[in-house]
Amino acid sequence: MQRMLITLNINGEEREVAVQPHHTLLEVLREDLGLIGTKHGCELGECGACTILLDGAPVLSCLLLPLALQGRAITTIEGLEDHGQLHPLQETFAELGAAQCGYCTPGMLLAGAALLAHNTHPSREAMKEALAGNLCRCTGYTKIYEAIEAASERMDEEKHKAALPGPSSNGIGGKRRL
Asked: Which residues form the 2Fe-2S ferredoxin-type domain (predicted)?
């Protein structure tokens, strides 16, 4: 079958790729673009291992055809960090041991990050609902929920720090005069 040249916005970058019309976004990400953080799981839309963000919303890449996604913003796990700085949820996953085998981790991180982008202080019920399409066979989800809670707190702290005025420039080593 003939490949078609399309342009996809992946992780903030326009990428031209020649795709087979019947290939899923999951196949294109992994096989054509080398973005292997998105995992093959059931390929039936049941497990969430292939979760990506489409215009900020978690979706299953095994169910999407890339031909229909031109002009849409696609974020994979490789694009969750910001200029080399891990997303707070990535940090708390690592710190709290929320990942065990790691297979579900990319999908969990993206679904959790999407939740935090829209609900900065989610309840456990909101977390359960947001992660309902992502299966984990190792953790029992408790550490994952704790990591989301910790990331929420960390994001609040970072916003608070960003809102604070910095040291004044008064020519005395950056110290403030009273």
From this structure: 4-80
| DSSP assignments along the chain, one per residue | ---EEEEEEETTEEEEEEE-TT--HHHIIIIIS--TTSPPS-SSSSS-TTEEEETTEEEEGGG--GGGGTTSEEE-GGGSSBTTBPPHHHHHHHHHT--SS-SSHHHHHHHHHHHHHH-SS--HHHHHHHTTT---SSS-SHHHHHHHHHHHHHHHHHHHHHHS-----SSSTTPPP-
Question: Over the chain, what is the mean pLDDT?
Answer: 92
Structural tokens at position 107: 């999908």
Class of domain 4-79: alpha beta
How many Å apart are CA 52 and CA 106, to the nearest integer?
8
Q: Which of 94-98, 132-136, 159-163 comes out lowest in average pLDDT?
A: 159-163
Task: Retrieve residue 105's tokens.
Answer: 């981790």
Domain ranges of the chain: 4-79, 88-163
The structure's pTM equals 0.88
Kindly report the CATH class assigned to 88-163: mainly alpha
